[in-house]
Amino acid sequence: MAAFTSYVSSAGQPSYSFPQQQSAPSHASRAPIQHSFYPYTDNGGSTLGISGDNFTIIAGDTRSTSGYNINTRYEPKLFRIGGEGSEHKGSKIVLSVVGFAADGHALKERLDTVVKMYRYQHGKEMSVNACAQRLSHILYNKRFFPYYVQAILGGVDEEGRGALYSYDPVGSYEREFCRAAGAGASLIMPFLDNQVNLKNQYEPAAPQGLEKPQLVPQPLQRAATEELVRDAFTSAVERHIEVGDGLQMMIITKDGIEEVFSPLKMD
Amino acid sequence: MNHLPQAWGRPRDDIYGAYDHSYLPQTHANTHPTTHTQSPVVTGTSVLGLKFKDGVVLAADNLASYGSLARFTDVKRLKPFNRKAVVGFGGDVSDMQYLDRLLNSLDVQENYSGAATTEEDDGEAPAATADGEGGEDKHKAILDAKNLHTYLSKVLYKRRSDFNPLWNAILVAGLTTPPPPAPSTSTSSPKDTTTSKPTGPAPSRKPIPYLAYADLLGTTYSSPTLATGFGAHLAVPIMRRAVPDEAAAAKLSREEAVEIVKKCMKVLFYRDARSMNEYSLCVIDGKGVDLQENIKLEGESWAFAEGIKGYGTQTV
Amino acid sequence: MFRNNYDNDSVTFSPQGRIFQVEYAQEAVKQGSVVVGIVSKTHAVLAALKRNAEELSSYQKKIIPIDTHYGIALAGLASDARVLSNFMKQQSLASRLTYDRPIPLSEITSRIGDRAQTNTQHYGKRPYGVGLLIAGVDQKGPHLFEFQPSGVTQEMVACGIGARSQMARTYLERNLDEFEGSSREELIKHALRALKDSLAQDKELTIENTSLGVAGVDENFKMYEGQEIANWLETTFERPEGGEGEGMEVDS
C-alpha cells in the first residue's frame, strides 16, 4: 500500500526508465561524439509569384550560390509539375522552390510523381487546389526532418482564375495574390504589398484628414504584372549578393505555360 | 502529474520497477549507437571541369592527403565509366572507392540486362548510317553522363538524408543527347495518309557536352565551368574569364580548353597546400574518353615567390 | 473419373513435365479478345478488339498507355493486367527518377517476366491470367515484346494473342517481309487487317470496338479510339474490292 501512496521517491523525485535530464560531463566522455554533419545548406536566390484573374506568373532568378561563391549562373528554381513525360508536355502547374536546392529537387520530384500517378489512375489532370493540398501534406509528413525550402505553387483554378499558393518548410500554406520568397524576399515583399495589394496607397483626390480612403486592389493585367516582376528583381539584384544572373518567368494561363528568360546583372 | 511531459502516462519505476532492456532486440541493448562518418579522413583536393566545342576537359591531381600529410601520391581520382562518361572525385578517398565499386557493379548490371548492347555490338559495328555516325549508334543505349549524374546525385542525397553522407564533391563529364526539340505526339490525323518513306532508325540528334556537379548534401548544378574544393575559389575565376557562358564554350577548341585547365592546375599547385604537381587530365568528346593519368606540371617555377613581400601592410 | 492430380497448384510438375496451372492460365489468354502488334524500323503499333459483355455495357479497356514511350495491349484477365500495368508504371517512373531516362522496353519486359515466374514457383500463388504485348520506342528504336503467364517473354516483329488470334498470326506471317520497311500508315493498316482476320464471320471492325496504339521514333505512344480511328478503318477496308491487293486476298 505504501508503494501506491508514495508519489515521491526517497530522492524527492519520482523516477522513470528514461534519462531525466542532461547527464554530467563525465558521462559525455564515453558517449559517442556529437554529429558534426549538418545536412542543409543555403543556395540563395529568390522567387516570387503573382496571380491575376486569368493567369499566374511565377518567377525566380537562376543564380545558385554557396556562401560567397557562385556555383552556376543558370540553375532554374521553377519546375513544371505533371504533364507528359520528362518534358512535362501539357502541364499547367508550376512549383518554385528556394532555399536548399537538393531538397527543392527532391520535393519537386515527389510532387511531380504524385501528379503523374494521379493522371494515370484517374485519367484526368489534377486540379491546382488538390495539388496544393498534396504539397502541403508532403512537406508536413517530413516535419521532423523538413525539406528546407520555401515553396510557391501556381496555376489556374477550375474557374480559370489565377491560383497561387505559398508554403513554409513544414507545410503551412495559404492561397494569396502575391508572395516573394528566398534571399530577396524581404526586399521584394514590401514592394509587392505596395504595388499589388496597394498598401499605404490612398485616394489622391481625397481631402486631407484622418479618414483617407485606401486604394482598392484591382485585377492585374498581364503585361503590367510582367513589368512589376522585372522591376522587383532588378531592384533585388542591386541590393542582394545572392540574387542575379538571370530571370526566369513562367506565365500560366488556361492554354498552358509560357516561359520567358531575361538576363539580370551578373555582378 | 509533474513537470516532465515525457513522463506523463508512463509507468513509474518506484511502482513497476525499472524497464527490463533485455527484452529489446540485442542490437539496441547495451550497445553503442551506430555512428557514421563525421568528417573525411584521407582526402583529395580540387577537381576541375571545363566544357568546349565538342566535349569536356576534366582534371584532378594524384594526391590523397591525410590531414596536412601528403599521404598517397598516386591516387587516380578521375574514374571513367563505360566509355561514355568520366567522374572526378574530390573529398574522402575511401568514399570515392566505394562509389567506384558501386559504378562498376552498375555497369556490369547494365551490360547483363541486355539494354546496353545488342548482338551486333559484340560482332562488327553496324553499317554506318547515311550521316556517317554509325560508330556512335553502337553504344547509344548505355547510360550516358547525364544518366550517371542523376544516379550519383540520388545516391548522395539518400546518404545525406540517412545522416550517413558520402563525403565527396564530384564532377560528372561526358556527352548527352538532348531531348527532342519539340515534344511531340504526332498530330498527323488519320486523314493524312501521305506514305512517308521510312527513315533510318533514330534521326540522330547530335550529342552535346555535359558537365555537372554533385556533393555530399545532394546539391547539384551544371555550368560550362565547374570546380570542387579550393578550385571553386582559385580556378573558376580563371576559367570563367575564358568561358563566361555556354556560347563561349561552344566556340572553344579542345587545345584551348586543355591549355586553360593546365594553367588552372598550375595556379592550384602554387596556392593550394593540399595539392601536388602530378595530375590526371581527361578529355571526353565524340571520339571517346582520352585519359592521361601521369601529367607532370610544366614550367614549374617558384621564382615569383621571391617577390612576395608578405601580406597586408608589409612593403620591404 | 479421370481427375487430373497434378493441377491443384502451380508448383507441382506432372509426370510428363508439365505444370497444368500455368497451361490453364495460358488458356485464359486465349479467352480474351484478340490484340495485334507490329513493329517497323520506325514505328510500333498495337491494335486491339474490344468486347462488351452485353449490349448495354461499355467496351473493355484493351490498350493501356504506361509511359510516354510505350504502352501495353492485353488479352485475358483485365484485373491481372491492371496489377501488372500499375507495377510497370511505377517501375517506369522510378527509372526516370533515378537515371533520368525512359526505361528500356527489354528491361521492363524482363521485370514483369521475373514477377510472373515467381508466381509459378511459390505454393499458394496463382499465375497471371493475362498475356501482354508491350510496344513502344526506346533508345534502341521501336520494339514489340510478348509476355505470357508462364513468365516467358520474347521480342517479336509482329504478334497476335487472344481468341482466334491464329488467323491474325497467319496474316502477319504472310506479310512478314513488308513490316520492316512500312511507313506509319502502312503499319497501322497491316495491324487492322490482321485484327480483322481474327474476327468471327458476322463481325466487323467499328470505331466502337477497335483500339489503336502507336509509338514512333520521336513520337510518343498515343492511343487512338472512337472517331479518331474512323478514317483508318475507312481507308483500310472500305476500298473497292481488289483495290488494296494483298489485304483482301487473305481475307477469305
UniProtKB/TrEMBL annotation, chain A:
Region (Disordered): 1-30
Keyword Aminoacyl-tRNA synthetase applies: no
InterPro entries to which the protein is assigned, alphabetical: Ntn_hydrolases_N, Proteasome_sua/b, Proteasome_suB-type
UniProt keyword list: Cytoplasm, Hydrolase, Nucleus, Proteasome
Biological process, per Gene Ontology: proteolysis involved in protein catabolic process
Coiled-coil ranges (or none): none
EC number: 3.4.25.1
Protein name: Proteasome subunit beta type-6
Protein localization: Nucleus
Any GO molecular function: hydrolase activity
Pfam families, A to Z: Proteasome (PF00227)
Biased composition (Polar residues): 1-26
UniProt GO cellular component terms: cytoplasm; nucleus; proteasome core complex
PROSITE patterns: PROTEASOME_BETA_2 (PS51476)
From TrEMBL, chain B:
Stretches the record annotates as Disordered: 114-137, 177-205
GO cellular component, one term: proteasome core complex, beta-subunit complex
Subcellular location: Cytoplasm; Nucleus
Pfam families registered for this protein in UniProt: Proteasome
Alphabetical UniProt keywords: Cytoplasm, Hydrolase, Nucleus, Proteasome
GO molecular function: hydrolase activity
Major site of localization recorded for this protein: cytoplasm
GO biological process entries: proteolysis involved in protein catabolic process
InterPro entries per UniProt: Ntn_hydrolases_N (IPR029055), Proteasome_beta4 (IPR016295), Proteasome_bsu_CS (IPR016050), Proteasome_sua/b (IPR001353), Proteasome_suB-type (IPR023333)
Nucleus among keywords: yes
Biased composition (Low complexity): 184-199
Domain of life the protein comes from: Eukaryota
Function noted in UniProt: Component of the proteasome, a multicatalytic proteinase complex which is characterized by its ability to cleave peptides with Arg, Phe, Tyr, Leu, and Glu adjacent to the leaving group at neutral or slightly basic pH. The proteasome has an ATP-dependent proteolytic activity.
Subunit structure as annotated in this protein's UniProt entry: Component of the proteasome complex.
Similarity field: Belongs to the peptidase T1B family.
Protein name: Proteasome subunit beta
UniProt organism field: Recurvomyces mirabilis
Automatic annotation (TrEMBL), chain C:
Ranges for domain Proteasome alpha-type subunits: 6-28
Species of provenance: Recurvomyces mirabilis
Any single biological process term in GO: ubiquitin-dependent protein catabolic process
Alphabetized UniProt keyword annotations: Cytoplasm, Hydrolase, Nucleus, Proteasome
GO cellular component, one term: proteasome core complex, alpha-subunit complex
Protein name: Proteasome subunit alpha type
Gene3D superfamilies: Glutamine Phosphoribosylpyrophosphate, subunit 1, domain 1
InterPro entries, per the entry: Ntn_hydrolases_N, Proteasome_alpha, Proteasome_alpha-type, Proteasome_alpha1, Proteasome_asu_N, Proteasome_sua/b
Gene Ontology MF terms in the entry: hydrolase activity
Top-level taxon of origin: Eukaryota
Segments forming a coiled coil: none
Main location: cytoplasm
Family named by the database record: Belongs to the peptidase T1A family.
Subcellular location as annotated: Cytoplasm; Nucleus
Self-association state and partner proteins as the record states: The 26S proteasome consists of a 20S proteasome core and two 19S regulatory subunits.
